[in-house]
Design a protein that fits this description.
CATH superfamily of the largest domain: P-loop containing nucleotide triphosphate hydrolases
Structural class: alpha/beta
Strand order of the largest sheet: 2-1-3-4-5
Shape: extended
Oligomer: single chain
Number of strands: 14
Distance between the termini: 59 Å
Largest sheet: 5 strands, parallel
CATH topology of the largest domain: Rossmann fold
Number of domains: 3
Number of helices: 20
Radius of gyration: 30 Å
CATH class of the largest domain: Alpha Beta
Length: 462
């Protein structure tokens, strides 16, 4: 896990420079010159030692002589680039060997200086290299931030219920703690798991997942822990399993509540010991992957009923994230509807379609037992059945018959409010949910601010 620590080093530490030189006097001169400029200087008398030092430290720039006994500077450059493709390497060469230095530049060296060099020129080259490295790091951090925003942009919604989930994700992403995501089917648990991975220091490593309820116990065990050749019928070769295949990334155990009890015991042992034993093997292997689990069940109730191990529950539930069902964040429905309409238009290679106010209100007031997944299916169906606008007739019978206003009413049994009354109450509900921020309410409703003001004036709500 050392590389994770290296990414988070305090910014006030000295910049580390590695000097690789097989001549002791030159090595000493370079060290004293750089230390006088407040650099933290590490030295190596050959390329092999340099590779080890480089791999164990957060080196900002490397200075190496091109000609050394054993592995030369060009070979060292190749090795450092293999460890870190963004390694900044400065080559020192005799004037007569400038062609070799140019070859080094073509291989990815940052710059070169010739012997005998002017101290100020060398120091300026190092300074420029470190400035380049800092700019690169800033750009990488900016890219990660933009990637994080892109990750959240796949999760549509601006409700406070969803924003609270985003805040937890941002806090826990940088940690190594196990996470348990709980929520009904169709709420987007895998999207949240991917967001955690994408915003973590592990984002460059794999994100692998398995549905624990979709495979028989024997096959699931092999899928997770791996197996050795000949351990069972069909095991024609060794297999590492997902715990090890995820490397230093994240392993997503979806529907963990469906895992059989005997396999829960093996999973608990693996998490406690941080190692897995493949099926049929006599030796265990360590793993580094972070575990993110998800379930649509109430695991505490499952524990009480004896269907899930209590010790495994607490091992997985270090950080708990509860995804609200769609009926608890109805203000997100118009945003989701327009997103899925745009997605359907792109998939069908057709122009975008509008949706009538009556259809939108029906969608907003339906309970959505299948959550976001059900809504997406409903919009795809309506898009295919409609011409230029989604109307009530394009919604399923269940949505039309079961949708109710999303608020309490004292209307007599059997009374159905008019479309105008439903629209008025829905607008009031959205305004209440955003603390009367009319600009935000207009965005959620998918109408212009001027249109919202006209409707409020019409309903005498201004």
């Amino acid at each position: 896990m050392e590389r994770f620590l290296a990414k988070n080093m305090p910014s006030d530490e000295k910049n580390k420079v590695l000097v690789v030189e097989d001549e002791e006097l030159m090595r000493k001169i370079l060290r004293e010159l750089l230390e006088a400029e407040n650099y933290d200087v590490l030295t190596a008398d050959n390329a092999e030692n340099a590779i080890q030092i480089f791999s164990e430290n957060n080196i900002e720039a490397t200075i190496t002589d091109i000609k050394m006994s054993g592995m030369d500077g060009l070979e060292l450059l190749d090795n450092l680039k293999a460890i870190d493709e963004n390694a900044l390497v400065i080559i020192i060469t005799a004037y007569s060997s400038v062609d070799s230095a140019i070859s080094a530049l073509r291989k990815g060296a940052y710059d070169y200086v010739t012997k005998p060099f002017v101290n100020e020129d060398l120091l300026q080259t190092v300074k420029n290299a470190i400035r380049t490295k800092k700019l690169f790091n800033e750009n990488r951090a900016l890219k990660r931030e933009l990637d994080n925003r892109s990750t959240f942009s796949r999760i549509i919604g601006k409700s406070e219920a969803l924003e609270s989930v985003f805040r937890i994700v941002e806090k826990v992403a940088s940690t190594n703690a196990s996470v348990l995501i709980q929520g009904e089917s169709g709420t987007g648990k895998e999207l949240i798991a991917r967001s955690i991975h994408d915003q973590s220091p592990r984002s460059a490593d794999p994100f692998l997942g398995v549905n624990c309820g979709a495979l028989p116990a024997e096959l699931l065990e092999s899928e997770l822990f791996g197996h050795v050749k000949g351990s069972f019928t069909g095991a024609h070769s060794d297999r590492a399993g997902l715990f090890r295949a995820a490397e230093s990334g994240s392993l997503f155990l979806d529907e963990i509540g469906e895992m059989p009890l005997p396999l829960q015991v093996k999973l608990l042992r693996a998490l406690q010991e941080q190692e897995v034993r493949p099926v049929g093997a006599s030796q265990s292997h360590p793993f580094e992957a972070r575990i993110i689990a998800a379930t649509n069940k109430d695991l505490e109730q499952e524990v009480n009923e004896g269907n899930f191990r209590e010790d495994l529950f607490y091992r997985l539930n270090v950080i708990e994230i509860n995804i609200p069902p769609l009926r608890q964040r109805r203000e997100d429905i118009p945003l989701l509807v327009r997103h899925f309409l745009a997605k359907a238009a792109s998939a069908q290679d057709q122009p975008r379609k509008d949706i009538s106010a009556e259809a939108m209100i029906a969608l907003a007031n339906y309970r959505w037992p299948g959550n976001v997944r059900e809504l997406q299916n409903a919009i795809e169906r309506a898009f295919i059945l409609s011409d230029t606008e989604i109307e009530m007739e394009h919604l399923t019978n269940r949505i039309r018959s079961e949708s109710r206003p999303g608020f309490e009413t004292n209307d007599p049994e059997g009374f159905r409010p008019t479309l105008e009354e439903m629209e008025r109450r829905y607008i009031q509900e959205i305004l209440t949910s955003v603390n009367n921020d009319k600009s935000q309410a207009a965005r959620i409703l998918g109408i212009d601010l001027s249109t919202l003001y006209r409707k409020l004036k019409k309903y005498n709500e201004l």
